Amino acid sequence: MYAFYDPNCPYCQAFREAASPWIQSGQVQLRHILVGVLTPSSLPKAATILGAANPHTAYMQNVAQHKHGGIAVQESARIRGEPQVRANNQLMQKLGVPATPAIYYKDAEGRLRKHLGMPPAHTLNLMMEGITQP
C-alpha cells in the first residue's frame, strides 16, 4: 500500500493506527509518500522526516508525538528533505489527489484502487482482503 501522508493530518494518523495490526504482523507494507500540504508547518515537518539520518525513526517519532504537535523541525534535515517533499507535493497535484490520506492499493483481483480519507472499518477490511489480521 502507498499513502500520501501529511505529518499534521489526523486522518493519516488514524489510518496508520488502524492498519497497524497488519503492518506489525509483516503482512502489509505501508509506504508513505510524505507531503506538506495541510498547514504551514507540514512541509518543514515532512522535510525533517525525509532528511533525517534515519527517516523511519523520524517518522515514528512524529507518530508518537502527533497529539503534541509532532516532530520538531531540525533545520539541517529540513534542508536535505525539502526537495523530495516538494516533488511529492507535485506528484500529488499531478495525480489530482485532493486530500490526505490518499491510499493506493491492489484489490483481491489485482486492480489498482484509491481511497481518499480515513477508511471506515468495513472498507479497511476490504482493502486488506486476503490478508489475515493477527
Q: Secondary-structure blueprint of this entry?
A:
Blueprint: E1 2-5, H1 10-24, E2 31-34, H2 42-51, H3 55-65, H4 75-94, E3 102-106, E4 112-116, H5 121-127
Parallel strand pairs: 1-2
Antiparallel strand pairs: 1-3, 3-4
Helix pairs in contact: 2-3, 2-4
If you had to describe this structure to a student in words, what would you say it looks like?
- This protein is an alpha+beta fold and 134 residues long.
- Helices cover 47% and strands 13% of the residues.
- The protein contains five helices and four strands.
- The protein has helices spanning 10-24, 42-51, 55-65, 75-94, 121-127, and strands spanning 2-5, 31-34, 102-106, 112-116.
- Strands 2-1-3-4 form a four-stranded mixed sheet.
- Helix 2 (42-51) crosses helix 3 and helix 2 crosses helix 4.
- The protein is globular, with a radius of gyration of 15 Å.
- The mean pLDDT is 93.
Radius of gyration using CA atoms only: 15 Å
Q: How many strands in all?
A: 4
From the N-terminal CA to the C-terminal CA, the straight-line distance is 18 Å
Q: Which class best fits the helix and strand makeup?
A: alpha+beta
Adjacency order of strands in the biggest sheet:
2-1-3-4
Largest sheet: 4 strands, mixed
Shape: globular
Estimate the strand proportion: 5-15%
Order of helices and strands: EHEHHHEEH
Q: How helix-rich are the residues, as a percent range?
A: 40-55%
Per DSSP, the total helix count is 5
Uncertain regions: pLDDT < 50 for 5+ in a row? none
How would you describe the oligomerization state of the chains in this entry? single chain
Overall pLDDT level:
93
